[in-house]
Design brief:
By secondary structure, the chain is an alpha/beta fold. Helix 1 (about 10-30) packs antiparallel against helix 2 (about 55-65), helix 1 packs across helix 13 and helix 3 (about 85-90) runs parallel beside helix 4 (about 110-120). The chain has two domains: about 1-160 and about 325-345, NAD(P)-binding Rossmann-like Domain (Rossmann fold), CATH 3.40.50; about 170-320, Dihydrodipicolinate Reductase, domain 2, CATH 3.30.360. Helices cover about 40% and strands about 25% of the residues. The strands form two sheets. A six-stranded mixed β-sheet has the order 3-2-1-4-5-6, sandwiched between helices. Strands 8-10-9-7-11-12 form a six-stranded mixed β-sheet. A hairpin with a 3-residue loop joins strand 11 (about 305-310) and strand 12. It has helices spanning about 10-30, 55-65, 85-90, 110-120, 130-145, 155, 165-170, 185-195, 200-210, 220, 225-235, 255-265, 325-345, and strands at about 1-10, 35-45, 45-50, 95-100, 125, 150, 175-180, 250, 270-280, 280-295, 305-310, 315-325.
Length: about 350
């Protein structure tokens, strides 16, 4: 089947997706019967290009790699000044990859873009935590109303399959609890504090130098990033209606090297743990540092890796581990969702 795809946002993840489509396009056509034509790309900083006949992906990547605006794709045409809502209305896409910046407080402008696409009957895949954490149930119902599909694989553990696994691998199981490490930055910092004897400030500085932490690391080290991902898990997999304001949150800024060393002597290891569980009809969630026994699978997850342990009524505890961020990794999550939409439509 052939599809027309629009990208809303073309930063790191968007370019990762384009690289994957350029590299694996023929394979996806042969193996999965999935053929995609990019008809629009719009980005707040880079501009907008659109062609119903399809755009040359490799040419787009060449333009962006040179640091040029998207208008350089075709210098013979006047640059488009359309905003993403106008692009969605005009591009005629079947699928939309929504890849704009994350706003955990309001979910905007991404939520408005997703709503517009769904109302137009377009299927949407997003890696944006904001809309998924704040408006998941509303967006899911809007998709159903307009006979569209809304998928969010990349919102929690990048390309490491969480929702795909739950949908297909855990069929017939009921998840009672989900517990894990959902922020690679804090896991890297805690790992360096233990293994290399660094103080918190030293480990944070190294994380920033290596690109694991932003100049302002608040979202990571204070637990806001993990909180948003946990709310998504609570509402999507456990079927809750948890709001971000209802989640207890504590970061790692209060963890000292002395605390890490004392825990290690007693056979424990500090991790920033996001945990959600269902008790009866109620779903509760919390994020905070915990001392895990070394026998816990999550205790062995070091560096910038993420991991989740699912407690299932039939299978018991199942743990998955993998990258929680990255250009190609998150691009792969969007590809997973596009292929899942393709399978559903077939």
């Amino acid at each position: 089947m052939k599809y027309k795809l629009a990208l809303i946002g073309c930063g790191t993840v968007g370019q990762g997706l384009l690289e994957i489509l350029a590299d694996k396009g023929e394979t996806m056509k042969e193996v999965y019967g999935f053929e995609v034509k990019v008809v629009a790309v719009t980005d707040k900083l880079k501009g907008t290009i659109m062609s119903p006949a399809g755009l040359n992906i490799k040419k787009i990547l060449t333009v962006l790699a040179a640091g040029k605006p998207l208008s350089a794709y075709d210098r013979g045409k006047k640059p488009l000044t359309m905003d993403p809502l106008e692009v969605l209305a005009a591009c005629g896409a079947d699928m939309v990859a929504e890849l704009t910046y994350t706003n955990i407080k309001t979910g905007e402008p991404a939520t408005s873009y997703i709503k517009k696409a769904l109302k137009l009957g377009m299927h949407v895949a997003t890696s944006n935590k904001g809309p998924a954490a704040l408006h998941y149930h509303e967006l899911r119902e809007l998709a159903r109303k307009h006979k569209a599909i809304f998928r969010i694989e990349g919102t929690v553990m990048s390309g490491t399959p969480v929702f795909t696994l739950a949908e297909n691998g855990f069929v017939g199981n009921e998840a009672k609890e989900i517990k894990g490490i959902l922020n690679g930055t804090t896991n890297f910092i805690l790992s360096k504090m233990e293994l290399d004897g660094m103080e918190y400030t030293e480990a944070l500085a190294l994380a920033q130098k290596l690109g694991y932490a932003e100049a302002d690391p608040t979202a990571d080290v204070e637990g806001f990033d993990a909180l948003a991902k946990l709310v998504i898990l609570s509402n999507v997999i456990l079927g809750g209606h948890v709001k971000t304001s209802q989640v207890k949150r504590e970061g790692i800024t209060g963890i000292s090297k002395k605390m890490v060393d004392e825990a290690k002597k007693k056979g424990f290891r500090y991790k920033l743990i996001a945990e959600t569980k269902r008790v009866g009809a109620k779903v509760t969630a919390a994020v905070g540092p915990q001392k895990l026994p070394l026998s816990d699978p999550l205790a062995g997850v070091m560096g910038a890796q993420n991991a989740l342990t699912f407690d299932l009524d039939l299978l018991g505890k199942v743990t998955i581990q993998g990258p929680g961020a990255g250009k190609l990794q998150t691009g792969a999550a969007i590809l997973q969702d596009l292929l899942a939409i393709h399978r559903d439509l077939r």
